[in-house]
Design a protein that fits this description.
The protein has 8 helices and 7 strands; from the N terminus they run αβαβαβαβαβαβααβ. By secondary structure, it is α/β, with parallel strands linked by helices. Helix 5 links the parallel strand 4 and strand 5. The chain is globular. The structure holds S-adenosylmethionine. The site of S-adenosylmethionine has 22 residues, from strand 2 and helix 8.
């Protein structure tokens, strides 16, 4: 399986609607977390079992990974987890999906693809259009978590988010109460690898004001 897919390819213009939350989750009233680029979903499978007081949606652009995650769902008891196939940059163009942003309490971008070459920066998942959409629709107090081992990508993500006056970066003193979406500090697969290789991790949390 190819590790990288071009999110700007026309294969990803079509968008799958996410069903209403009442059809997806046992308790749709729980706080909602969205993990963008969830890959195989291992992180969300573990998190959703350990933290049943939240609902989780994983968005992933590699369709095979989503199909496998959905197959795995059939033999699991995760009633608070849903996987959606698509490009996070246009998945919210669908009117049904746009409604979901209103219910989101937090979003994570864990180790997104770096797309190192300058001409490929437009393929990076955090883009002004997505941040604008989130800043206009996410509720006050909701959070964006970003994490990467690539310094240059981190700077790019920070710059893009901070260009929205509606998101404030939390300081080190502020962050503690905001870990609730991941209280057990479960690591993603990329995070495990990065820790094993003793690479530096850069992370920030932004709050909608
Ligand atoms: C480097 S992997 C990190 C996976 C996982 N978050 C982790 O930390 O182990 C980045 C993931 O984001 C997915 N991805 C890249 N661009 C995306 C996009 N525009 N929309 C949704 N998923 C995307 C990739 O297919 C890949 O699975």
């Amino acid at each position: 399986m190819r590790q990288h897919v071009n999110p700007l390819s026309k294969n990803f213009f079509e968008i799958d609607p996410i069903p209403p939350l009442s059809q997806v989750f046992e308790n749709p009233k729980l706080p909602l977390h969205l993990d963008v680029g969830c890959a195989s979903g291992d992180f969300l499978f573990e998190l959703s079992l350990k933290n049943k007081n939240w609902n989780y949606i994983g968005i992933e652009i590699r369709e095979k990974l989503v199909l496998n995650a959905n197959l795995k769902m059939q033999s699991r008891e995760n009633k608070n987890l849903y996987f959606s196939f698509g490009n996070a940059n246009n998945i919210f163009d669908h009117s049904d999906n746009k409604l979901i942003i209103d219910f989101i309490n937090s979003i994570s971008f864990n180790f997104p693809d770096p797309w190192f070459k300058k001409k490929h920066h437009k393929r990076r998942v955090i883009q002004p259009k997505l941040i604008n959409l989130l800043s206009n629709s996410m509720k006050k107090g909701s959070l964006i978590f970003i994490k990467t081992d690539v310094r240059e990508l981190f700077d790019h993500m920070e710059l893009t988010i901070s260009e929205s006056i509606k998101f404030k970066k939390l300081t080190n003193q502020d962050v503690q109460p905001y870990q609730s979406f991941n209280p057990n500090k479960i690591q993603t697969n990329r995070e495990k690898y990065v820790i094993l290789k003793q690479l530096k991790i850069y992370e920030s949390i932004y709050k909608k004001i």
